[in-house]
């Protein structure tokens, strides 16, 4: 069975998918085509914003809600908005994302919105101690939320559990 791509007008990668209020939301990274040479630092991945996409059903019509968060809106970040994830709690939507800080180290940030499609407002600082990429949100049946994130080129796995940013 051949299935057509859902998103064809932008380069996207590493999506997370969630159902909020009966609608499917996709939170991918967005890679721009550049002339930056490939290297071990990943500089060729010129990811400067996030778009949020939604659809009513699998293989349904996809809505691009536009830029939900841009690099220049994040005070602590310098480049490379990689694989994000999202969660909801008490009617607020949280976008967790990795980015390089101004010293070139990957950190995990969080941005908040009243709507799943954004726009998202970033917190002014990354999550303390989050020297990593690939955040993943998990909300257990009891309502307790967890944020996991893995390492890059090192393979560490971390868990951040707190009600505070």
From TrEMBL:
The keyword Signal applies. It holds the Pfam family Glyco_hydro_43. It comes from the Eukaryota. The record marks 134 as: Important for catalytic activity, responsible for pKa modulation of the active site Glu and correct orientation of both the proton donor and substrate. GO terms for biological process: carbohydrate metabolic process. GO terms for molecular function: hydrolase activity, hydrolyzing O-glycosyl compounds. Keywords: Carbohydrate metabolism, Glycosidase, Hydrolase, Signal. The keyword Hydrolase applies. Belongs to the glycosyl hydrolase 43 family. This is Beta-xylosidase C-terminal Concanavalin A-like domain-containing protein.
């Amino acid at each position: 069975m051949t299935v057509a791509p859902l998103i064809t007008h932008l380069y996207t990668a590493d999506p997370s998918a969630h159902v909020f209020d009966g609608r499917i939301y996709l939170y991918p990274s967005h890679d721009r085509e550049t002339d930056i040479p490939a290297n071990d630092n990943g500089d060729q991945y010129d990811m400067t914003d996030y778009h949020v996409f939604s659809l009513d059903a699998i293989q349904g019509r996809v809505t691009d809600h536009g830029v939900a968060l841009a690099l220049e809106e994040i005070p602590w970040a310098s480049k490379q908005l990689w694989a994000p994830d999202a969660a909801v709690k008490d009617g607020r939507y949280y976008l967790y994302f990795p980015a390089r800080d101004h010293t070139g180290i990957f950190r995990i940030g969080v941005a908040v919105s009243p709507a799943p499609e954004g726009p998202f407002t970033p917190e002014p600082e990354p999550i303390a101690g989050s020297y990593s990429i690939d955040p993943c949100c998990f909300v257990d049946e009891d309502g307790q939320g967890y944020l996991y994130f893995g390492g890059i080129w090192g393979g560490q796995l971390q868990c951040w559990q707190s009600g505070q940013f």
